[in-house]
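can u do me a favor
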């Protein structure tokens, strides 16, 4: 096998030997310490390999290596058994080399597979194991039976590994192993020249019979594939497997994909093996009958020419035969078949034109009878080996039409032609529709008196072919719709209904390919409105029938023809069909809708362009719509009136059958995008369209320049409004599609939009916004089921919003915000309280947080404010969190401009002033953090100061609402509020710090009663002490250099010399914060004293005061001394009269001097204070420190231990 299929790789044997020797040496080196057996085996293998290499010629080296495979691979197998990662890596790499070179024999393979299975169980080098088993199965029948099943089991087990990379590799390996297993069957059948099984099969044959009787007849590979197929079905049914032993679980989706791959890629397996195919009962094996003619065919048809009866006899035979077929077809049966085949032979004859004309006249009568077509199908198409007469008839008409058109190009016109009448133009030759072509008038079949045929004009034959194709289209439609016809008796039994479906499907499928080809041939050559309308009507009928019959190939081919001719000549294949998604949908039927005769039978494309220049009116001239593959093309193309008619037919066909189009939407929407671009129709933000002449506003978007070089004629301007209306209806009617069809439409529009995103990324040309506009319109009309489509559309629009192209990003943001607002309005109108749907609607707005462009942020905020205004009373907690988070992200983003910050803060402020009452209590914490974020931002100091005021305002609302919620939640909100204000107290801007400090003191003073003792403890330690520590660090690190900027945003002010450096400014902050914390501590001392750690808090507070007092700054030291005094005694003027104060000072001075000597020795360290007994902490003893202080009337009642701490600070100061 070739390397591409995983077999033996052609390479230099000596290079392989050298590489294997290196691997063995490396394996020996790695194993010399802990794995002596591996080392010894490696050295032995090296000797063996060297001997084989030196004693063997190049021609026999491969076979000698294969013979010595067991000894060479033995150390590798031992290396795998050690489970040592390094040894396993080396061993598996060497095994892979051996597999690629093809030296592994059937004896060693099962042993290696067993070791690979052990490695899998040990979860060792799983990726290497997968690579190795893939090479095993890819080799030419190296592993079969149980070894093959074990390889597949290994891959299946690794598909459930914990490592994502292993899972992906295992999934790919499973697919490849299944494919290799069935590929072997194809090769085995080719070697054995196994014939295709003859059908039909007996109804008695079932799977049990096949297994019992034919199991031994199957080849090795066929048996493996048969067992694998059975086990695959067992896995799908979740039953135990008989061949894939050890598989306990399997992904259902992967099993179905494998089954689909087998059925799609290996049909010959089912055709050649009765075990794999049991349903080939419709294979035909009929016998041909002699044609009913005046003379018989000779015994040697190859050597003798077929003789036809004379003209008079032939004409009468045709008339009789036609009568028999039309009126007595149920009686003559196979004679009707013989007669039709004879007519087809006449049609294909090139000896005389009259023979073809006579055949066309007969066929014209036959195809115009729907009942006759139905009978022909029901009688002959379902019998074994019977020809499909309808297919032969339509194909014969199409082939003759192609031949006649080619001949018309070469022939000279026999008479002058009036080109104003309906007809066809072939090169320079105009062929009118013949007046005698009708269902009641003949020419040849009425020439009963003539002995020889006269001259038949070519136009008559082409006209007959045209009439036949039109009539057969109508007849097929009548056959399919017969069950719904009011003139027919409706089917009453299930059998009749099923028979009708079967026959109508067969009639359409047999005729559709050739019929479509013939109609498109005539459409290109047609030059008159009535003829074009008839042909387009037939093409749209084929689209309807293809959707009704569910034939995707014909549906795609017919619509592809309409797409091709809706655009200028050559445009579709050059610019539209280059899209991979569209080209892939063409598949096997890509050429069905192609007009091959344009290049094969009409000499050059210039002839077609000349036809358009002469007889087709040009209605518009425009450039190519930019696509990723043609963004640099500026070629001009002309749209004709015929293109406009085809485009209208395309839109109507898509509108009528939109639910059945599935993947065909890619092609249709791409064509409409190109068509609207060339004709100058431009999209609007609401999903509608406008033209240059309409002068509509662009809905606030950046003005989009006109499509370059678009020239419209007055003939088309009047048609554009109606065409716009058709496009709108096409999208609006998507609200009637099922979910799957809607997803196809959305996927196609997203694909087109993605292509324009690529164009905008690589080119400076103007791009088309067709896809985004239609996405918005499609979404709005389907809002009643937004759960179905919301995620893919919004995800794509979010991606568009992140594009670097300004206009594209603007369109994406407008479309997304309009869609979200429309969805929210509809949700409110429905009066449904569906939290999940609200979250689904608002999730795209949250995803826009990842987009860094400011214009997108602006529209995001517009949407948020709009939703707050219209839906604030109905929003769930989760949606409120999303809205608040949007403003929070903008506030903390350093890239946000001052204008954007102001706009976002307006929303935050509006929430606090107008919507705070409806804001869920659970969202208050997030809202407070958001306000604090705007207080911290540095773009605008006014917003920071306003945010501090807003926190003060919110605190009042918290107090009002806290009574309706639990104590735990309430306390948490208060702590978050104080924490937010505390963080602003250490802002880098003095004005913000001053305002925050004042607000913190006022807020605590106003709402201190709302905090519990536990909350006060948390606030003191986590907020207030943390604030003092941050201020201390900032003050310590502050610079003493004078700055021109006052650090108040970007504004500069004249600053007093006492505040002209950061150090002086932070000194003021230190004074304010220490004063505020002391006041708060004193005010809540009665609460804090009840806690066990009050002494620790007291000591820590004393330490902050001491540190501040000892700083080399007079302002801070003086303020700290005042705070020290107030911390112990409060405000003197509020507690005692001046007289009492003076007396207290005198007493305090005397007693302090007397007491100082004793206390300096007794209480020298703060650690010793903790050893005091409870009796020493009693109050009121005049011989203690507290007793000496309590001689003052205003001294607080504290234990001695606290006074000792304070006294030490006093002495140190």
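np, heres the sequence
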């Amino acid at each position: 096998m070739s390397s591409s299929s995983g077999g033996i790789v052609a390479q230099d044997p000596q290079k392989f030997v050298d590489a294997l020797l290196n691997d063995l040496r490396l394996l020996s080196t790695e194993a010399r310490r802990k794995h002596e057996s591996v080392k010894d085996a490696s050295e032995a293998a090296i000797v063996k390999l060297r001997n084989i290499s030196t004693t063997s010629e190049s021609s026999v080296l491969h076979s000698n290596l294969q013979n010595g495979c067991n000894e060479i691979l033995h150390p590798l197998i031992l290396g795998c058994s050690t489970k040592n990662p390094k040894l396993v890596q080396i061993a598996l790499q060497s095994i892979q080399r051996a597999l690629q070179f093809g030296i592994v024999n059937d004896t060693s393979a099962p042993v290696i597979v067993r070791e690979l299975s052990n490695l899998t169980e040990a979860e060792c080098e799983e990726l290497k194991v997968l690579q190795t088993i893939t090479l095993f199965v890819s080799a030419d029948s190296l592993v079969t039976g149980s070894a093959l099943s074990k390889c597949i089991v290994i891959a299946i087990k690794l598909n459930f590994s914990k490592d994502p990379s292993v899972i992906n590799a295992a999934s790919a390996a499973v697919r490849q192993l299944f494919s290799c297993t069935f590929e072997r069957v194809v090769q085995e059948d080719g070697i054995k020249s196994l014939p295709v099984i003859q059908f039909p099969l007996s109804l008695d044959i079932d799977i049990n019979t096949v297994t019992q009787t034919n199991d031994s007849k199957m080849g090795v590979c066929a048996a493996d594939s048969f067992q694998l197929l059975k086990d695959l079905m067992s896995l799908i049914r979740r039953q135990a497997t008989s061949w894939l032993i050890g598989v306990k679980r399997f992904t259902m989706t992967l099993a179905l994909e494998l089954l689909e791959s087998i059925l799609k890629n290996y049909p010959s397996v089912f055709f050649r093996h009765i075990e794999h195919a049991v349903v080939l009962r419709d294979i035909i094996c009929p016998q041909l009958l002699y044609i009913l003619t005046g003379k018989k065919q000779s015994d040697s048809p190859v050597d003798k020419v077929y003789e036809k009866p004379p003209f008079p006899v032939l004409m009468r035979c045709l008339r009789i035969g036609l009568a028999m077929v039309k009126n007595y077809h149920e009686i003559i049966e196979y004679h009707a078949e013989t007669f039709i085949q004879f007519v087809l032979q006449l049609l294909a004859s090139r000896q005389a034109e009259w023979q073809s004309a006579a055949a066309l006249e007969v066929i014209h009568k036959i195809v115009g009878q729907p009942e006759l077509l139905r009978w022909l199908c029901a009688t002959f198409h379902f019998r074994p080996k019977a020809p499909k007469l309808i297919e032969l008839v339509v194909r014969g008409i199409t082939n003759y039409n192609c031949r006649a058109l080619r001949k018309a190009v070469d022939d000279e016109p026999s008479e002058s032609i009036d080109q104003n009448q309906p007809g066809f133009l072939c090169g320079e030759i105009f062929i009118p529709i013949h007046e005698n072509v009708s269902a009641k008038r003949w020419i040849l079949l009425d020439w009963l008196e003539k002995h020889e045929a006269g001259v038949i004009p070519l136009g008559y034959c082409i006209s007959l072919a045209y009439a036949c194709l039109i009539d057969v289209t109508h007849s097929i439609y009548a056959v399919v719709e017969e069950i719904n016809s009011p003139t027919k008796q409706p089917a009453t039994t299930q059998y009749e209904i099923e028979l009708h479906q079967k026959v109508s499907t067969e009639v359409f499928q047999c005729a559709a390919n050739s019929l479509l080809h013939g109609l498109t041939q005539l459409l290109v050559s047609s030059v008159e409105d009535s003829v074009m309308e008839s042909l387009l009507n037939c093409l749209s009928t084929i689209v309807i029938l293809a959707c009704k019959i569910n034939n995707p190939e014909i549906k795609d081919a017919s619509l592809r023809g309409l797409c091709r001719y809706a655009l200028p000549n050559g445009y579709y294949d050059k610019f539209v069909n280059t899209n991979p998604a569209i080209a892939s949908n063409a598949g096997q039927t890509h050429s069905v809708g192609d007009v091959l005769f344009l290049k094969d039978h009409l000499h050059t494309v210039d002839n077609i362009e000349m036809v358009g220049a002469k007889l087709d009116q040009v209605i518009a001239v425009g450039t190519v719509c930019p696509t990723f593959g043609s963004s640099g093309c500026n070629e001009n193309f002309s749209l004709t009136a015929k293109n406009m008619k085809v485009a209208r037919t395309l839109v109507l066909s898509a509108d009528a059958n939109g639910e059945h189009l599935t993947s065909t939407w890619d092609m249709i929407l791409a064509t409409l995008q190109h068509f609207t671009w060339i004709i100058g129709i431009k999209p609007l933000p609401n999903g509608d369209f406008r033209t240059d002449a309409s002068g509509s506003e662009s809905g606030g978007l950046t003005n989009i320049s006109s499509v370059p070089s678009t020239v419209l004629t007055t003939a088309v301007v009047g048609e554009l409004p109606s065409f716009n209306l058709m496009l709108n209806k096409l999208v609006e009617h998507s609200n009637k599609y099922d979910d799957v069809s809607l997803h196809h439409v959305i996927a196609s529009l997203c694909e087109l939009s993605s292509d324009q995103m690529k164009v905008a990324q690589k080119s400076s040309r103007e791009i088309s916004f067709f896809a985004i506009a239609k996405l918005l319109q499609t979404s709005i009309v389907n809002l009643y089921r937004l759960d179905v489509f919301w995620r893919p559309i919004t995800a794509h629009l979010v991606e568009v919003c992140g594009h670097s192209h300004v206009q594209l990003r603007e369109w994406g943001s407008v479309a997304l915000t309009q869609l979200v607002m429309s969805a929210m309005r509809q949700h409110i109108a429905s009066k449904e309280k569906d939290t999940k749907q609200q979250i689904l609607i608002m999730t795209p707005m949250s995803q826009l947080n990842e987009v860094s462009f400011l214009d997108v942020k602006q529209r995001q905020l517009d949407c948020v404010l709009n939703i707050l205004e219209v839906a604030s009373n109905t929003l769930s907690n989760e949606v409120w969190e999303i809205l608040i988070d949007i403003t929070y992200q903008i506030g903390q983003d350093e890239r946000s401009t001052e204008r954007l910050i102001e706009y976002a803060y307006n929303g935050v402020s509006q929430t606090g002033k107008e919507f705070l009452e409806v804001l869920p209590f659970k969202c208050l914490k997030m809202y407070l953090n958001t306000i604090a974020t705007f207080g911290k931002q540095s773009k605008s100091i006014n917003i920071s100061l306003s945010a501090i005021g807003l926190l003060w305002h919110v605190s009042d609302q918290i107090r009002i609402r806290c009574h309706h919620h639990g104590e735990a939640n309430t306390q948490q909100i208060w702590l978050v509020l104080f924490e937010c204000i505390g963080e602003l107290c250490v802002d880098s801007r003095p004005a913000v710090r001053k305002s925050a400090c004042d607000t913190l003191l006022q807020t605590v003073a106003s709402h201190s009663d709302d905090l519990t003792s536990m909350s006060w403890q948390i606030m003191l330690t986590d907020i207030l002490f943390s604030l003092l520590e941050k201020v201390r660090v900032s003050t310590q690190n502050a610079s003493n250099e004078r700055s021109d900027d006052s650090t108040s945003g970007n504004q500069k002010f004249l600053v007093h010399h006492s505040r002209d450096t950061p150090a002086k400014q932070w000194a003021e902050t230190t004074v304010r914060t220490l004063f505020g914390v002391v006041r708060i501590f004193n005010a809540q001392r009665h609460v804090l004293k009840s806690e066990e750690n009050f002494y620790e808090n007291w000591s820590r507070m004393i330490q902050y005061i001491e540190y501040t007092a000892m700083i080399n700054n007079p302002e801070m030291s003086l303020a700290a001394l005042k705070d020290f005094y107030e911390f112990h005694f409060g405000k003197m003027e509020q507690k005692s009269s001046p007289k009492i104060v003076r007396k207290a000072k005198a007493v305090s001075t005397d007693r302090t001097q007397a007491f100082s000597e004793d206390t300096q020795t007794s209480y020298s360290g703060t650690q010793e204070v903790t050893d005091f007994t409870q009796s020493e902490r009693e109050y009121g003893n005049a011989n203690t420190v507290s007793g000496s202080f309590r001689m003052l009337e205003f001294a607080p009642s504290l234990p001695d231990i606290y006074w000792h701490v304070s006294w030490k600070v006093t002495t140190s100061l």
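The beta strands are 423-426, 429-432, 618-623, 636-640, 681-683, 689-691, 711-712. hope that helps!!
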